[in-house]
Recover the amino acids of this structure.
């Protein structure tokens, strides 16, 4: 049996004037139309997708490198999710920096690309038209 992760969301009111709250693992964050499609304060579902993607991707890359006998010292990943009103999520840009003793840059970049293809969150987001990766090898 698999592990089930749960999050809750509640929305009150109309689309533009209403507000909501997400709740998971003790984190609670408010969100509004403005925090999603403008520059309003609060979180939004796309920010949560970005956090999930960055976290999953970093673990997947670490797993690949560790399985190859070269565990990383650290991997730092940023995910930027773009949403366009009326179109949906149009792009995700992953940027990762890894310090991995005992390998060269080409090996790191190859592992980074493979991790992008096989991480479970990447798999779940395959319908996004553009998912890019910038992998930087730090010595």
């Amino acid at each position: 049996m698999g592990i089930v992760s749960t999050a809750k969301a509640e929305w009150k009111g109309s689309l533009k004037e209403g507000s909501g709250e997400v709740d998971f693992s003790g984190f609670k964050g408010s969100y509004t139309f403005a925090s999603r499609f403008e520059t309003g304060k609060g979180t939004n579902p796309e920010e949560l997708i970005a956090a999930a993607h960055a976290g999953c991707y970093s673990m997947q890359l670490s797993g690949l490198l560790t399985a190859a006998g070269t565990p990383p010292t650290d991997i730092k990943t940023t995910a930027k999710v773009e949403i366009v009103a009326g179109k949906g999520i149009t792009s995700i840009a992953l940027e990762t920096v890894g310090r991995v003793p005992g390998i060269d840059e080409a090996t790191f970049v190859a592992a980074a690309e493979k991790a992008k293809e096989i991480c479970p969150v990447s798999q779940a987001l395959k319908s996004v038209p553009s998912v890019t990766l910038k992998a930087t090898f730090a010595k």
Q: What stands out?
A: The two ends are 40 Å apart (CA to CA). The chain has two domains: 1-43, 45-138.
